Structures are given as C-alpha cells and as structure tokens.
TrEMBL record:
<dbReference type="InterPro" id="IPR007494">
    <property type="entry name" value="Glutaredoxin2_C"/>
</dbReference>
<dbReference type="InterPro" id="IPR011901">
    <property type="entry name" value="Grx2"/>
</dbReference>
<dbReference type="GO" id="GO:0005829">
    <property type="term" value="C:cytosol"/>
</dbReference>
<feature type="domain" description="GST N-terminal">
    <location>
        <begin position="1"/>
        <end position="77"/>
    </location>
</feature>
<dbReference type="InterPro" id="IPR040079">
    <property type="entry name" value="Glutathione_S-Trfase"/>
</dbReference>
<protein>
    <submittedName>
        <fullName>Glutaredoxin, GrxB family</fullName>
    </submittedName>
</protein>
<dbReference type="InterPro" id="IPR036282">
    <property type="entry name" value="Glutathione-S-Trfase_C_sf"/>
</dbReference>
<dbReference type="InterPro" id="IPR036249">
    <property type="entry name" value="Thioredoxin-like_sf"/>
</dbReference>
<dbReference type="Pfam" id="PF04399">
    <property type="entry name" value="Glutaredoxin2_C"/>
</dbReference>
<dbReference type="InterPro" id="IPR004045">
    <property type="entry name" value="Glutathione_S-Trfase_N"/>
</dbReference>
<dbReference type="Pfam" id="PF13417">
    <property type="entry name" value="GST_N_3"/>
</dbReference>
<dbReference type="InterPro" id="IPR011767">
    <property type="entry name" value="GLR_AS"/>
</dbReference>
<dbReference type="InterPro" id="IPR050983">
    <property type="entry name" value="GST_Omega/HSP26"/>
</dbReference>
Length: 215
C-alpha cells in the first residue's frame, strides 16, 4: 500500500498513526504542495491523505482510511467515542492555531516544500485563510499565551499517556496530530500530562515530533 501525504498535514498524521499503531507496512510518499496532477489523478481532487491499495484503487478522507485499516488489518484497536469536551477544545484551538503553524511549516525543511514553487503555492493559498505569514509570526507571543491557557484546560482531559480517554480511541487519532504539529512552535510549554501524552503517542504511532527543530 502507498500513503500520499504532506508531512505537516494533520489529516495525514491521522492516517500515518494507524499504520504505526498497528505496525502495518506502508510506503509513505510526500507530495510537493503544488503537485495537483498526482492527487487529482488518484481521487479526482487535490487532497491528501490518499491511500492507494495494492489493487491500485485509491481512497481519500483520513478517518475512512483509519477505519478501513483498523477494521481490515488485525484486531480492531480503536474505540469510537470522542468526548464532547475534547471536540470543543479542538474547535477552540483549531480556530487560531494555524496562525502559529503555517508560517513555521515552510521553514522546517519539509519535503512538501522542497521547491520554491511549492512554497509559493502554499503561502498564496493559505494567506487567504490566515492573512499575512510574517504578521502572524510577529503575533506569535499573543497566540502562544492563548494556547497556554487552552493547554491548561486540556491537561485535565488527559487520562493516560497511551490514550487520552484511558485507552486508544478515535480521540487520539484526531487530537495527537494537532499537538504534534504544535511541537514546531518554540516557546510553547506543554503541561506535564499533555507532554507525556505527546511523547508516548509519538512513540506508539511512530510519527516523529518537530520539537528538535522548533522555531
Ligand atoms: N476531510 C479531509 C481533509 C483533508 C485536507 O484538508 N487535506 C489538506 C492538507 S492538510 C489538503 O489536501 N488541502 C488541499 C491543498 O493543500 O491544496 C480528510 O480528513 O482527509
């Protein structure tokens, strides 16, 4: 099987996680951010993640990929429940966190931005949603302060390192990718339980963090 991704894409991390958690072999292919032909050729639109099965057929939608792999390979691993409080937390943080993340993504040396045209494509498209990249970078301290308040709220929702709700569930598939991406932001201090959760989930899912290159 082949999994087409961008390294920074949280939806792609969801899909990468199920392969890591279940120890299933997959070839990860990082597309250039401005490569429209490959995804359109596979699923008819410019989107990742895309799973290409061994029979050549392709599927998009991160949670469909996660469920397909969980249900067809080995014993089912993930519980379905996602707590309403956690959904609310993700919606709150999701409303602003790209202002911290997107200006940093293009500076991390990620494969999807290996060419200038890939960087330009991303910046032009995402400036429409978050505004000017440089201005957002400058405003980092205010977003980090907001994030610290939100992380303090999250601390009380983390029940165990190896599953936010006490055991692996879809919660981890949607929450960990957000936290993993936030490890690229220098100056963010994760509360102890959240930090332990991030470290454990990275190891279990075999999705590396950005901590060592945070900026
Ligand atoms: N609902 C989709 C969303 C996937 C998605 O939005 N992927 C983004 C990358 S993070 C994408 O491919 N956007 C198109 C683009 O970058 O041009 C899923 O869960 O897989």
């Amino acid at each position: 099987m082949k999994l087409y991704v961008y390294d920074h894409c949280p939806f792609c991390v969801r899909a990468r996680m199920i392969f890591g958690l279940k120890n299933i072999a997959v070839e990860e292919i990082v597309l250039l951010n401005d490569d429209e032909a490959t995804p359109v050729g596979l699923v008819g639109k410019k989107v990742v993640p895309i799973l290409q099965k061994d029979d050549g057929s392709a599927m998009a939608e991160s949670l469909d990929i996660v469920r397909y792999i969980d249900e067809h390979y080995g014993e089912k691993l993930l519980r379905e429940e996602i707590r309403a409080e956690l959904t609310e937390w993700m919606n709150d943080v999701g409303a602003y966190y790209n202002r911290l993340l997107m200006p940093r993504f293009i500076r991390l040396g990620l494969a999807e931005y290996a060419t200038q045209s890939a960087v330009d494509y991303f910046v032009s498209k995402k400036t429409e949603s978050i505004g000017d990249f440089a201005e957002n970078l400058q405003k980092s301290p205010q977003y980090i302060e907001k994030l610290h308040n939100d992380l303090a709220r999250l601390e009380s929702l983390i029940k165990a390192d190896n599953g936010a709700n006490g055991a692996l569930s879809l919660e981890d598939i949607v929450l960990f990718p957000m936290l993993r991406n936030l490890t690229c932001v220098k100056g963010v201090i994760f509360p102890p339980k959240v930090q332990a959760y991030i470290t454990a989930m990275s190891q279990l899912s075999r999705v590396p963090l950005y901590s060592s290159r945070a900026l």
